[in-house]
Design brief:
Helix 13 packs across helix 16. The protein has 17 helices and five strands. The chain has two domains: 141 residues, no CATH class; 231 residues, no CATH class. Strands 1-5-4 form a three-stranded mixed sheet, with helices on both faces. Strands 2-3 form a two-stranded antiparallel sheet. The two termini are 33 Å apart. The site of one iron/sulfur cluster has 11 residues, from helix 3.
């Protein structure tokens, strides 16, 4: 059974996914692609893949940065010559990702590093069901066996679905701070599995747990202590390593952003370097570690793409197990909700390098594209 997350998407043929991203290709696919019967003079290259950190990806042209199979009209030559089925699964599936979840069940969700998905522009994703089901039949070998016992964290399927559905609705509610939901989830984890697996009781208790968490959780301030700042810096560093794959930069803005990021990470090791007490620091403009930064965002609509992104991950369960380094349910959930902190920091960074004044939706979109691009995929 295939469950498709409720999103919107119609390809804009921008070519970004073939131009910027490292597109994985499996050994079996490499073998099959190498045997494709190109006619003389037509074969783009024999050397079509490269290996990075032990993983194989389609090679990019050194000058243009395009995949070696991309033509000048942003179309795939392999697709045009041999049809879609000859392409690697990653190419055929994008922007969708599959996850085998429970026995006989698979989810599909679209990635937010695709501009069309990020903009929520186009057809409802349900429209692609036939294509996705066909793709799924061709790809059974790649999907694995679904969640392991350890990944399920002692929870039943019904309990996991009830928690995720409750949180999905909650993250879409702009009146609910995401850090309060994170506190609620931690509390739920502490209450033990017999409690969490009693689904009927759980459903009646979750709203009051949410309300209590909203009342008692102070405004998010993850930059306040030294360990939190270190953790956040490390997360941001990971994201910024992949930034050139998702962003559209002017060189001026890129230079400014690299400068600000360098100040962040090379700040003489002083945890107070960027605090409001040092307003002269160039990075203070980004106010990454300013308590005000972590209180409620300026306008709720700024965070629309972040909330939609979290909701689709919750709906598709693509935040633990194979989707996130083999993490267990509660660990994956905590990491997923924590991305809201990184989104705020990256949005500030983008705003500081791009325009004066408060955050605008484009700042958040930049952050969400980058975070979702990296979620569970950074090769450490
Ligand atoms: S990035 Fe998205 S919109 Fe652009 S070509 Fe790829 S699938 Fe289409
Ligand atoms: S092989 Fe084709 S679809 Fe895949 S990344 Fe290259 S150009 Fe894009």
């Amino acid at each position: 059974m295939l469950q498709i997350a409720h999103q919107r998407y119609t390809c804009q043929e921008c070519g970004r996914c073939c131009r910027r991203f490292l597109v994985p290709v499996t050994p079996l696919e490499i073998e099959a692609i190498a045997k494709l019967p190109w006619s003389p003079g037509q074969r783009p290259t024999r050397d079509f893949y490269c290996v990075v950190n032990g993983h194989a990806f389609f090679r990019h042209d050194a000058k243009t940065g395009d995949c070696v199979y991309l033509d000048e009209h942003s179309h795939c030559r392999m697709h045009a010559t041999f049809g879609a089925k000859c392409k690697a699964l990653s190419c055929r599936a994008y922007p969708f990702e599959f996850l085998a979840t429970f026995p006989g069940e698979v989810t599909a969700a679209a990635r937010y590093d695709c501009p069309a998905v990020l903009a929520n522009a186009g057809h409802a994703t349900e429209r692609y069901r036939n294509d996705l089901e066909e793709l799924l039949q061709d790809s059974q070998l790649h999907l694995g066996n679904g969640f392991s016992e350890a990944e399920l964290d002692g929870l039943t399927r019904e309990s996991i679905l009830a928690i995720c559905e409750f949180l999905r609705k909650a993250v879409l509610d702009t009146a609910i701070p995401i850090n309060a939901l994170r506190a609620m989830v931690r509390r739920l984890d502490q209450l033990g599995r017999p409690f969490a697996n009693d689904v009927e009781t759980l459903k009646t208790v979750l709203p009051s747990m949410r309300d209590k968490a909203i009342r008692e959780t102070p405004p998010a301030a993850p930059g306040r202590t030294w360990p939190e700042r270190t953790h956040l810096r490390s997360n941001l560093l990971d994201y910024l390593r992949y930034e050139q794959q998702t962003g559209d930069f002017s060189w001026r803005r890129r230079f400014r952003q690299v400068f600000l990021a360098t100040k962040l990470f090379m700040g003489h090791g002083n945890p107070h370097e960027f605090s409001p007490l040092q307003p002269d620091s160039p990075f203070a403009k980004a106010r990454i570690f300013d308590a005000k930064t972590w209180s409620v965002p300026v306008e709720p609509e700024v965070w629309n793409s972040l909330r939609r992104c979290l909701a689709s991950r919750l709906e598709s369960l693509q935040f633990f197990g194979r989707a996130y380094y083999g993490a267990s349910f509660f660990k994956g959930l905590d990491e997923l909700l924590e991305t809201a902190d990184s989104a705020l920091a990256l949005s500030r960074l983008h705003a500081a390098a791009s325009h004066p004044g408060e955050l605008v939706p484009e700042d958040c979109d930049y952050a969400v594209a980058l975070i979702d691009h990296c979620h569970g995929k950074i090769h450490r």
